[in-house]
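User: Just a sanity check before I run the rest of the batch. Below are the structure tokens for the first item. I only need the designed sequence back.
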């Protein structure tokens, strides 16, 4: 996939001396010291990133980290002090007033934390507002707004007014308004943070399906790590205006860049983040039609394993053999005569917590692609290890920054 949004060395400074503040920031001077010297606040400090087409990119940080300022720079609701923002290779930072207006109307849309609905307009009229600004005909904008409302499950409420809707439903209207214009890039600034936990989870679940339908690139701001891990293809952890670490969810959890990131991940349910492909290993196998009980036992001893897969001539699993199944057999017994042909299997994207029952029998789970290719095995011991808390998590809890567990 190609890059949709690229940001290069972006700075945003609020205060009387932004140029001096940027120079000090480039020299590595701390944010507080820059303020003491210039009375200027560096809200975004040398941020660079690239977001692929149709990617859901999450920026996560505590209050005051600069994440909301950053996302407003992307559509220039806030003008950056320096740096470059490119959309489809074209500079947004150099765009003129009219060009910027057209870009906001036709390419970008934004969903805010607070719903900002027009109380005197119906749900449908709120959803079609962006289309009205574009000059779309009444009939066409009604059709597009209704399609967006259907996507968020509110088409039956099209002619109701916002006051008749719950907070969660109002936020769905805000999302529908953003989707109705069919944006190429959707900016979402903590859109679910004001919702009750149950409704919030429902909205998180719906967002993935909505993105698949609209094929939209989404930049999502949150202070909640669990939300970030659930939604993000990539996650950027932000602190004091900088990106501390950028990577896929599995990397953020398993290889935190520093103690600050570790503090965020200390209480994460790893089983709901890590996938089969992240812990699978190359399989030690036996050959159907060749290996015998004797050679199978030797292979097990060599590998230090008590259960091995048997593969056919194409390298695909035909079954498995346990050490106990070979007891009391003559050494020349063919393994195909005693192997178990029914075996646990999964796809590489399966979350580890979903493998728990399959691992209960102690048989490695075969990881196979959609076309049946044998990619590796997940050892039950590895799944059980990841599903329980370890001492490292407890130790890192003591280092957690204030509010990190939000």
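Assistant: Here's the designed sequence for the first item:
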């Amino acid at each position: 996939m190609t890059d949709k949004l690229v940001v290069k060395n972006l700075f945003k400074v609020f205060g009387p001396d932004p140029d001096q503040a940027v120079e000090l920031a480039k020299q590595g001077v701390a944010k507080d010291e820059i303020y003491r010297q210039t009375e200027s606040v560096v809200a975004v400090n040398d941020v660079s990133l690239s977001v692929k087409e149709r990617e859901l990119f999450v920026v996560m940080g505590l209050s005051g980290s600069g994440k909301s300022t950053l996302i407003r720079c992307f559509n220039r609701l806030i003008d950056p002090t320096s740096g470059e923002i490119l959309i489809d290779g074209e500079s947004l930072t150099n765009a003129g007033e009219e060009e910027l207006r057209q870009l906001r109307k036709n390419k970008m849309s934004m969903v805010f934390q607070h719903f900002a609905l027009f109380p005197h307009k119906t749900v449908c009229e709120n959803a079609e507002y962006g289309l009205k600004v574009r000059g779309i005909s009444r009939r066409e904008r009604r059709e597009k707004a209704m399609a967006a409302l259907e996507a968020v499950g509110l088409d039956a409420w099209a002619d109701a007014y916002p006051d008749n809707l719950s907070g969660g439903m109002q936020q769905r209207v805000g999302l529908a308004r953003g989707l109705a214009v069919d944006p190429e890039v959707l900016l979402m600034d903590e859109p679910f943070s004001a919702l009750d936990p149950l409704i919030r989870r429902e909205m998180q679940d719906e967002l993935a399906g909505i993105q698949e339908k609209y094929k939209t690139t989404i930049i999502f701001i949150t202070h909640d790590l669990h939300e970030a891990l659930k939604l993000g293809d990539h996650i950027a952890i932000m602190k004091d205006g900088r990106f501390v670490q950028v990577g896929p969810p599995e990397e953020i959890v398993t290889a935190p860049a520093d103690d600050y990131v570790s503090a965020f991940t200390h209480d994460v349910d790893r089983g709901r983040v890590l996938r089969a492909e992240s812990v699978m290993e190359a399989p030690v196998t036996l050959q159907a039609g060749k290996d015998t009980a004797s050679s199978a036992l030797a292979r097990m001893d060599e590998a230090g394993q008590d259960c091995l897969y048997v593969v056919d001539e194409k390298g695909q699993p035909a079954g498995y053999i346990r050490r106990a199944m070979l007891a009391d057999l003559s050494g020349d017994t063919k393994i195909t005569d005693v192997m178990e042909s029914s075996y646990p299997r999964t796809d590489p994207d399966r979350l580890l917590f979903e493998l728990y029952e399959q691992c209960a029998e102690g048989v490695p789970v075969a990881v196979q692609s959609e076309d049946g290719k044998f990619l590796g095995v997940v050892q039950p011991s590895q799944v059980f290890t990841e599903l329980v808390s370890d001492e490292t998590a407890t130790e890192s809890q003591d280092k957690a920054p204030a509010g990190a567990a939000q």
